[in-house]
Specification:
heterotrimer, A mainly alpha (about 260), B mainly alpha (about 270), C alpha/beta (about 325), B: about 270 residues, mainly alpha, MetI-like fold, 10 helices, about 0% strand, C: about 325 residues, D-Maltodextrin-Binding Protein, domain 2, 2 domains, five-stranded mixed β-sheet, about 20% strand
Chain lengths: ~260, ~270, ~325
């Protein structure tokens, strides 16, 4: 990751290219090269965005989406890690769960959105289930691989010291497979976000995804772009937060 | 980082005996699935769950089989796969190319990386509504969305992979005055391949998800639209059947990928 | 490895392309976005009876469930003509998008064939907009034609629309939502409105279109002003073919032949469709009706002010 940081060290230079793109976009709008209704100028969009933040209108949908996402994501992470560890450490559980996981995993979770609407109805339960379903498999698989990939010596040592199974899992297995678990959670983060936005678009009651499609249908393009900016910030913020937590938890990651 | 990998490929060695035991245990899993399906069938037949959208599972299998003899599902699936394939090809080619270029050139890194980092966190569904107005609802839009989704994992992995290429290798190549293209093909690419493959694998699972997503939002054809269409046409059996076919497709693609990977990059995972 | 992949995918792609290749012809192609509902039957009748072919047109329809992708797709250049609802057209026009109505699509002018009721649970005791205050009603999308007339009906029957919660529920899910008490009332369209009443427990308490504005022009065929000026002949031919289809439809709308046509593009079982009454297809748009809708939109703050309807509705639709 050192390459990335040398860009940020020269942060002024790093801002250069986005600045250039934005100015070209702005100029194109000012000179009428693009249809101003379909593609508003960045300055107009930013202005709309500032208004959204200033009058507080941005917060309820944003919080709504964040809440749905976080609940689904946390459920997925807990389930994914638990099942992943269980399957990796118990042959019986592996046998019981493996066929089911193999059947459910390859379904593109977006295809399940209309199905879930049918039998969970429209509402928060469905949205959360969608996010959880999308996020659980990457976590599960990579937890499983992480635990299976552990050095057998480590586990044998624990056995020698007659450490209980629970204790072995909590104090040896989980910390050692943490990098893999986090790698899975990173993929799950992106997938979960895609799915929560999709679900909100297909049948939302509120939320950022709902707003974006709603504004497109009302042809309020400038506001729609402002909300897309909000979503960029949300996605970027969550990723940065994840990086931060990961660096905390696995300081040795990326230094190999 | 082989997150889209498998539940089997593990580094721990297993004896033939434990394998057999494991296969025996898997019987429980099959029984579990059978029990779930039976519960589904019974709950629908006996009316425990009353909803027009809860058809007996036998009816779904029947619909799925009938579709084999020529039905909309397979045609829709083909349309989706075609777009997914083109989008995947475009997105991954760009991802590998830019990953290597940015990995090797500081100027390009400074020029492009911040832009890529800004676009990266946008969840794909969000860009579809504005793009409809520029690209319409046809292939251009969907392929664009799929390429975009494919690009990022491939790019990120390639970029990180290039960073780990041993610099002495490149220096050596330079000492021998190896041409730039040759260095790329003979030194950088082989060393980066495992990372690229990991990125491609993450991308394959995303590709199908996003293909379906784009068809649902900007619907007109493809399996994603078919699902929504059947929802409106009150044909839940066909809807579930379509999901089944999608699952089979996803499974096959994942398997195919693993086989290709083992064939083409035998040194994968042995670092 | 990438190369192998690319070649593999390319081969796969070509294969699929080959399957899907359509037969070429000399006819001029018109791409039409439709919503797979009964209302676009005249278009399909005109196609099947060869009215467009006689005029040198080949119609290529693309369904859009709920119609969400219609006008945006028109702007994006995917379609030449879009079947859309009156509210969307006026909203698009207000935002400066260049949309033109070229033919009428749906008109609700007979109560007997109005299959778009507000449903409630029979035991709920809800009868008017007043009763709905503090309760919830579902529409498929907020700020659209359904939403607008639901609000108008609530107001007309003594309620305050702002005191009613509007929930967005797609039509196919409405019946379950009502029966499971997740919503108190629903404004529903056919065939869902008919199917959901086949089992007891749900009652229709109103038909907002007929109650509020008999004769309302709900749906239209729309194109862009640009297309109208660059290809006026093509658009005129389209409107003419469609009108012929509407006339045939009106003459035969109780026959089984129509059911087969509708079943073909909605993919809904003909047995279900049989129970849905078909209204007559309009032959002309009615400016005074559109104006009434516009006034309602202004009243409900969907529009900031009146729009010059003469600029939106092309004379060929009148």
């Amino acid at each position: 990751m050192s390459q990335r940081s040398d860009v940020y060290r020269t942060s002024l230079l790093g801002l250069l290219s986005p600045a250039i793109v934005l100015s070209i976009w702005e100029t194109a709008g000012l000179l009428g090269w693009v249809n101003p209704i379909l593609l508003p100028r960045p300055s107009q969009i930013v202005w709309t965005l500032v208004e959204l933040v200033a009058n507080g209108a941005v917060f309820p949908p944003l919080l709504y989406t964040v809440a749905l996402f976080v609940v689904g994501y946390v459920i997925a992470s807990i389930l994914g890690v638990t099942i992943g560890v269980a399957m990796a450490t118990s042959e019986t559980l592996y046998g019981v769960l493996e066929p089911l996981v193999e059947i459910l995993r390859p379904i593109p979770k977006s295809a399940l959105v209309p199905v879930l609407f049918l039998f969970l109805g429209i509402g928060k339960a469905t949205m959360i289930t969608v996010v959880a379903l999308a996020a659980v498999f990457p976590v599960l698989i990579s937890t499983f691989q992480g635990v299976r990939g552990l050095d057998p010596v480590l586990l044998d040592t624990a056995r020698t010291f007659q450490t209980s199974r629970m204790r072995t899992i909590v104090s040896i297995v989980l910390p050692a497979s943490l990098p893999m678990i986090l790698a899975g959670m990173r993929v799950a983060l992106g997938l979960g976000l895609v799915l929560v936005i999709l679900a909100e678009m297909l049948a939302g009651e509120d939320g950022v995804g709902f707003r974006i499609l709603d504004l497109q249908r009302a042809f309020q393009i400038r506001d729609m772009f402002a909300w897309i900016f909000v979503l960029v910030a949300l996605g970027g913020g969550l990723m940065m937060l994840f990086d931060l937590v990961e660096r905390r938890l696995v300081p040795w990651r990326g230094k190999t | 980082m082989s997150v889209a990998g498998t539940l089997e490929g593990t580094s721990r060695k297993r004896t033939a005996g434990s394998n057999r035991r494991r296969l025996g245990k898997r019987v429980y899993g099959v029984v579990l699935i059978a029990a779930i399906l039976l519960f589904w069938e019974v709950s629908s037949r006996l009316g425990w769950i009353v909803s027009a959208y809860w058809p007996p599972v036998s009816q779904i299998f029947q619909a799925a089989i009938v579709q084999l003899a020529g039905g909309d599902i397979l045609v829709s699936l083909a349309a989706t796969l075609r777009r997914a394939a083109i989008g995947f090809a475009v997105g991954s080619t760009l991802g590998v190319a830019l990953g290597i270029l940015l990995g090797r050139s500081k100027v390009l890194r400074i020029a492009l990386l911040p832009l890529i980092e800004i676009v990266r966190p946008i969840p794909t569904p969000a860009v579809i509504p504005p793009l409809i107005m520029f690209l319409g609802v046809d292939d251009a839009l969907k392929i664009f969305a799929i390429s975009l989704a494919t690009f990022f994992p491939v790019f990120t992995n390639t970029f990180a992979g290039v960073a780990t290429v041993d610099d002495t290798l490149i220096q050596t190549a330079r000492t021998f005055r190896t041409s730039w293209a040759r260095t790329l093909l003979r030194v950088i690419l082989p060393a980066t391949l495992p990372a690229i493959a990991a990125g491609l694998r993450t991308a394959t699972s995303l590709t199908l998800v996003v293909a379906v997503v784009s068809e649902m939002i900007a619907g007109s054809s493809g399996i994603g639209y078919y699902l929504v269409e059947m929802q409106y046409a009150l044909r839940p059996d066909l809807m579930y059947a379509a999901v089944m076919y999608l699952a089979i497709t996803g499974y096959t693609i994942n398997r195919l990928f693993l086989v290709l990977e083992a064939r083409l990059i035998p040194w994968m995972g042995k670092t | 490895m990438r190369k192998v992949f690319l070649i593999g995918f390319a081969v796969m792609g070509l294969f699929v392309l080959a399957i899907q290749r359509a037969t070429a012809s000399d006819l001029e192609k018109v791409r039409v976005s439709i919503i797979p509902i009964n209302d676009v039957a005249p278009l399909f009748v005109a196609m099947q009876n060869g009215y467009f072919r006689e005029l040198g047109l080949e119609i290529d329809t693309t369904p859009s469930a709920g119609g969400a992708a219609g006008i945006p797709g028109l702007i994006g250049g995917s379609f030449d003509v879009v079947y859309g609802n009156v509210v969307s057209v006026l909203l698009a026009s207000q935002q400066g998008l260049d949309v033109k109505v070229i033919a009428p699509g749906t008109k609700v002018d007979q109560r007997e064939t109005d299959t778009t009721p507000i449903l409630v649970r029979s035991d709920s005791g809800i009868k008017s907009g007043k009763d709905l205050e503090g309760k919830s009603i579902s529409v498929n999308t907020r700020n659209n034609v359904i939403w607008l007339y639901a609000r108008a009906w609530i107001k007309a029957t003594g309620g305050d629309p702002d005191k009613v919660t509007f929930k967005e529920i797609p039509f196919p899910q409405v019946e379950d939502a009502l029966r499971q008490q997740r919503v108190d009332a629903s404004f529903l369209v056919a065939p869902f409105s008919v199917i959901s009443r086949q089992k007891p427990g749900l009652t229709a308490i109103a038909n907002p279109y007929s109650d509020i504005q008999p004769g309302v022009d709900v749906g239209q065929y729309i194109t862009t002003g640009k297309l109208l000026s660059t290809k006026p002949e093509t658009i005129k031919k389209f409107a003419a073919g469609l009108r012929k289809g509407a006339e045939w439809f009106n003459a035969n709308r109780t026959s089984d032949a129509i059911l087969a046509v509708i079943s073909g593009y909605t993919k809904t079982d003909a047995s279900i469709l049989k129970s849905v009454a078909l209204g007559a297809a309009p032959l002309r748009s009615d400016l005074t009706q559109v104006k009434k809708t516009m006034d309602l939109m202004i009243e409900n703050k969907l529009l900031t002010g009146p729009i010059d309807l003469a600029k939106i509705i092309d004379p060929m639709a009148l």
